[in-house]
Amino acid sequence: MRVLVVDDHPVVRFGLVGLLSRDFEVVEAATGEESVTRASTVDVVLMDLQLGKGIDGVEATRRIRALENPPQVVVLTTYDSDADIVRAVEAGAIGYLLKDCGPEDLAEAVRTASTGQTVLSPDIAQRLLRQVRGPAPKLSKREVQILEHLARGLSNREIAKELFISEATVKTHLVRIFVKLGVETRTAAVTTAVERKLIRL
């Protein structure tokens, strides 16, 4: 099995290559662009999220998964926010691991991912399970109003004017909305709210 390690830190790549070379044939890439170029020759990609200059790990994952006969992508990172997890999964990652996982767990995760099965760090799995089992995020009446205005394409200033509140207050509500929905952009907030039937277009 061939594995591509993608990380912009040479020391981290060196350690991962040395570790995984015991069980797999390993190649490496330092940038998102380089990972996309090399992805067609491997079975599994271990992808960091932050890759310095150029495209990040999420965009690299999206491009890799758009290839013909793409390899499976497993995110291996120190970032564990809900927004990061959602972005990675939406981009096509089949797994999400944190860099504090053990060597044996990492090798097993690679094998599992190569068969098309999802692999998640225990903490990530528990968090996602709670989200699935838990109720949909409750938005305040004002947050729903702001989302509805977002869906109409209004700017923060226009929303503030419509609702007779300050622009700063709109920004504060947006931050809370993003956290509750696990998103990072206005477009994603509207899309997620519609999917969860929190608002109607």
Tally the helices.
10
Query: Mind telling me the CATH superfamily name of the largest domain?
Result: Response regulator
As for the CATH topology of the largest domain, it is Rossmann fold
How much strand?
A: 5-15%
Q: Which structural category fits the helices and strands?
A: alpha/beta
Task: Explain what the structure shows.
Helix 5 links the parallel strand 5 and strand 6 (119-120). The protein has a six-stranded parallel beta sheet, sandwiched between helices. It is an alpha/beta fold. The mean pLDDT is 89. The protein folds into two domains: 2-132, 3-Layer(aba) Sandwich (Rossmann fold), CATH 3.40.50; 141-196, Arc Repressor Mutant, subunit A, CATH 1.10.10. It has helices at 10-20, 32-38, 57-65, 82-91, 103-114, 122-133, 141-151, 156-163, 167-181, 186-195, and strands at residues 2-6, 25-29, 44-47, 72-77, 95-98, 119-120. It is 52% helix and 13% strand. Helix 7 (141-151) crosses helix 9 and helix 8 packs across helix 9 (167-181).
